[in-house]
Amino acid sequence: MPFDFDAVIHKQYDILPLDPSLIKTTGEQKPQILWVGCSDSLVLETLTLDVQPEEIFVHRNLGNVVSNGDLSSESAVAWSVDLLKVKHIVVCGHYGCSLTKEKDPKALYGWSKDITKLHKLNDEFLELSDRKVDETSREHRLEEVYTLAETDWLAKQPNVKAAIRERGLQTHAFIYDKDSNTCVRLVEKAKGGKPEI
Ligand SMILES: [Zn+2]
């Protein structure tokens, strides 16, 4: 099981504006960031972070999925963390993703089974919590908790965990909104209610 689905669906987090200085450009032609994004997100990574193209190692797939054991994602993470020794990992989901809208993706050979499960749990959670939310807000929350779940999952992988501990690698969860052409940061609340910055 890639996620603790119960923990994922109950996540408490803040949505913060993305300060362009969060990841400063090094000015060097060397990757310092692994960017995990979705193939249909239309996000422009270098503009979002205001860094040079050489500073980002980009890995995109359908739904910014890294937790399902596929070799392409695993290799991208191993390459950038163990060999390139990037300083940051950004997982960037996006609102309006065609994959998270899909409720019955039989044609995808199980690729998005965890998202499908989260989709259902998210609907149940919102109904139980009696929040009167429209379809767009439901989708947005699904994108948010899902992106946080993938970011969390990555931070727990042995090589990423070691890099966080030993050399200060940082992980970040972003959501891109095509309509406003902006990214926001998702920051989980620590126990006691204060966000972890
Ligand atoms: Zn997408």
UniProtKB/TrEMBL annotation:
EC number: 4.2.1.1
Cofactors named for this entry: Zn(2+)
Co-factor note (free text): Binds 1 zinc ion per subunit.
MF terms in GO: carbonate dehydratase activity; zinc ion binding
UniProt keyword terms in alphabetical order: Lyase, Metal-binding, Zinc
Pfam family, one: Pro_CA
GO biological process: cellular response to carbon dioxide; cellular response to oxidative stress
Cellular component GO terms, alphabetical: cytoplasm
Reactions the enzyme catalyzes: hydrogencarbonate + H(+) = CO2 + H2O
Gene3D superfamilies the record matches: Carbonic anhydrase
Top-level EC class as recorded in UniProt: lyase
Positions contributing to Zn(2+) binding: 38, 40, 94, 97
Cited function: Reversible hydration of carbon dioxide.
Similarity comment: family membership: Belongs to the beta-class carbonic anhydrase family.
Protein name according to UniProt: Carbonic anhydrase
Organism: Lachnellula suecica
